[in-house]
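ingest -> validate -> predict -> emit
validate: passed (alphabet ok, no gaps, 106 aa)
predict: started
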Amino acid sequence: MVRFLFRVLSLLALCVGVVFGVIDAIASVSASQVIMTPISEAWIETHPGSLMTLEELVVGRLGDGAWLALRDVVLPQPAFAAMLVLSLAFWMIGYKKPSLAGRFAA
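emit:
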């Protein structure tokens, strides 16, 4: 059940990453230069209140330095790349190892 949940989360993150990539590609072609939407900008456009809630949570639990690191390192990354990395992480968590005995073992 948990493996299935992580596989579904992986699929959803992959779909969102592809959508962000397509949006960035269309914007790049129309502007004749490379445009990559950062995570923070995509997050603010989607749900601005949750970013402030995350800031309060991180500062309250981990301290101000953790929020500054998150803000300066993670949030400026391209949204499509972050979603693809998140999709890969979810897929790796939900991955089922093949049997060591082999496919036709009794």
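The mean pLDDT is 93.
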